Known about the structure:
globular, 10 helices, 12 strands, four-stranded antiparallel β-sheet
Amino acid sequence: MDTHLLEVKNLKKTYPIYGNMGKFxxxxxxxxxxxxxxxxxxxxxxxxxxxxSGCGKSTTGRAIVGLNKADSGSILYDGKELCGLSEREFRPxxxxxxxxxxxxxSALNPRKRIGDILEETLKIHGIEDSAKRREKxxxxxxxxxxxxxxxxxxxxxxxxxxxxxxxxxxxxxxxxKLIVCDEPVSALDVSIQAQxxxxxxxxxxxxxxxxxxxxxxxxxxxxxxxxxGVMYLGTLVEETDTERLFENPRHxxxxxxxxxxxxxxxxxxxxSALTGEQPVRTKDFTGCAFCSRCPHVTEQCRKEAPKLxxxxxxxxxxxxxxx
Length: 323
């Protein structure tokens, strides 16, 4: 029986909406970045979370690793509830839950050499012996395709692909069980993307880790993921195994993503492309999340939000039209 390493249940996260004067005055409303998100990740699995920019993917990932505090809901890691933990209570779990950021370079201290940056993480996690720290850093750099020479370089001396390899090394160095990869290849050349993705897949098998892979590129998600969740306007609209999703996407939003994908390996079929822009989800929002852009919208869609339900074994979707 597969073990669920991570379970997210009914997660909700809101942010205040300020007027033209910003925070000088009280907020005029709330934007719901994540609303009623529920999914799980098995041990050793790569779960792909795909959707447009601004749909709440990164907010979800940051809530899992404790960088954002959820308003409500539950995040269970290895049976332990993460929501509601203080920073001090969350700290022992930092070694198991790590994140690779989209803009890794901005997260690095430009005045420190790469070796010092990675060794600082080991110091924080209790490794005092400098020789052991250096040995661990060099070994980890080797795992991500960097050499001992890079130990002495500064971050700005690396190429874009090398910077992302360094970001992955920073996540791996304390031997986590789950890594949240937030758009780790979106800014890279296609050839470098393939190298990074293949490396992540090899590391997952070698180190027996799980991945939450966040991306807006459905072609990339297909390449690396075991299961895929499609996210729109803060909520999950479809979820199933990767190959099943690409063989038979059921939700109109998923079909629209297929129609827009430049990847020639994706069969487009006769799906409708997206029109308009993603609205802002406030507390007064009613109906289906996708109703303002769906080509099949009905009055029921505008009034009643569909439940994310199992339409066949292992395949969930939130749409009134799907029987």
